[in-house]
TrEMBL record:
Residues 1-23 form the signal peptide. This is Aspartic peptidase domain-containing protein. Residues 65-417 form the Peptidase A1 domain. PROSITE patterns: ASP_PROTEASE, PEPTIDASE_A1. One of its GO terms (molecular function) is aspartic-type endopeptidase activity. Residues 447-475 are annotated as: Disordered. Residues 450-460 have a biased composition (Low complexity). GO terms for biological process: proteolysis. Keywords: Aspartyl protease, Disulfide bond, Hydrolase, Protease, Signal. Pfam families: Asp. Belongs to the peptidase A1 family. SUPFAM superfamilies: Acid proteases (SSF50630). The lineage of its organism: Eukaryota, Fungi, Dikarya, Ascomycota, Pezizomycotina.
Amino acid sequence: MKLGCGVSWVVAALLSFSGTVTAQNVVQFGLNRGLPGIKLGSLPPLARRATYTEPLANNITGGGYYAEVTVGTPGQTVTMVLDTGSSDAWVVSYKANLCTSARLQQQYGDSCGQTYNPASSSTYKLVERGGFRITYLDGGVAAGDYMADDFEIGGTTIKSLQMGYATQTVRGTGILGVGFSANEAADTKYPNIIDQFVSQGLISSKAYSLWLNDRRSDSGTILFGGIDTDKFIGPLEIIPILKPDSSAAYTSFEVELSGMSLAYSNGSTFNVSMPKSSSTLPAILDSGTTLSYLPDNIAEQIFSELGTYTDTQVTGLTFVDCAYLTSERDSVMTFNLGSAAIAVPVYEMVLDILGPYQSSLPSDIPFGNVCLFGIQTTAGFQSSGAVTSSNFALLGDTFLRSAYVVYDLTHHQIGIAQANLNSTSTSITELKADDSGLPSVTGVAAQQKASTTASSTSGSGSSGTSGSGSAPETVTVTASAKNAAAGVRPPRIAGDVKGLLAATGFFAVVGSALVIW
């Protein structure tokens, strides 16, 4: 799974939120953003009783989308990072080494929030002592036991869900992995949360829809068992999930990235040259990774076009001029995935989260107001020895906020469309067990122009543009033709790719456990 971008110089704002069950077989779990201690209200009732929705907390500076759930009987409230790139759910033990060691908290720039105590739950069961272990690219681990307990999410309870119980961890927040069970850390695979949703009759199909909303919004949702056609624009494009090979099981939400382009407000365009040695470039759709990662030969073209700066001496990170937050407001970066073309406003790739740490950055950066760029290179994964090739794309939250994505584990399909940001209405289509695949459905005709008040964040940058309370950022999307392109297929990497990029006094977490085929 992936850990969001935890940053030691930023206070991780965790939200409280609640989900509302309005149906058998549909569960909606909301994604919300706000400050510590703010309790968001329940979502409005759904029109059908066949899906489940749950709110998640959008924490830009904390690096992820957070869900508040309850575990055990009586329920113990814990916060977890939603991760489409991993498959295990795990909670932090009340006696985890990070929770009890000031040295480790300083080392990893994190501390424990809400923890779980099995002795306080009458429904706790030990499954495998010492059986849980996920290894990270930086050598850090989350390890402990496998346990089972009741798990409440979106207003519904999954009985006796198997989870990791981490007594050793580099992160103080647990992970809610919602990937294929074949990608679990366990030697013996088990029914994970998506499997149990179906087997316990809560939803009909192993599928869910993700709507992260724009980065200044304090609302978003994951919808288990259904599709909300009010949350995207135009037709839902259906593309296949790539398989590692003919004999292997599906392990990650990997699709083909066939082309990229930049369109500027003056009408000019820049087409990114894709590698020619193969017809596809695998791209993993991963909500547990804060930024997005591209191969050097693709990323460098974008870096050059936008005048970014890469710190090769200390952090290895690429930075961009914060001026892009206000200039080129209509410029978009288009990602071609199969038959879909997702437009990401350039400003969505400009993260103003460095705050007072700007003074610690290299002195030769050619712009005065420095922001973290939402695209980095995959070279760090290869240089760490974790992978043998960096020719893959990892599309994290900086991409996913602009897309509405349906993850269909039953039919091995992805449904994807341009997100309708700040939508305030709901229209649910339940996904049925006897469906032959994702349905052909169409969203709204155009982007909703609803106004939103952004929450301030303690990690906002010096320009004050992040969380400034201004109106939401929107972009007008028009259909664009699919660019012909080719790519190089790397070794298969499970969606739970994770890395730490060490920096002066801070680090960025990019995901979690790593599996290579």
